[in-house]
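Human: I would love a firmer grasp of how sequence relates to backbone shape in proteins. Take your time, and here it is.
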Amino acid sequence: ILDDPDLKDIDPTVLKHCHAAAATCILEAGKQKADISAISTCLEDCKLDKERIEQFCTEYQKNKDALEILLGSIGRSPLHITDVSWRLEYQIKNNQLHKTYQPSYLVTLNVESSDSGSHPDISFSCTMEQLQDLVGKLKDAAKSLERATQM
């Protein structure tokens, strides 16, 4: 969007806010299975002119089925981490056969969803500093949750 020559005179921050607002409107309409009259009424309340409302509704109607399929594939609840496994690995040589001796951790998160259906495990590699940062952030989150439940 930012590279579109028709939009080069618009402040990028305003353009990003407009894009986020339009995406939110489209997602909420799809989530609520809103009909064209409800969408039109909402956009009229936002002071959009009739021509833009008609254009928006036409495009929405053309893509409504695909949007509903996409929203249905996302699921309704976040994944739940059930287990974590890790292993230490050493990179001894790089592609140019230079010795590197760089340790890293391979972390695998076992996840499940309440929406049923299996999800692949989430795996990532990180350095010791990145892993320490992750552990620190998780501890901060746990402390915040503990404080919130004590109130």
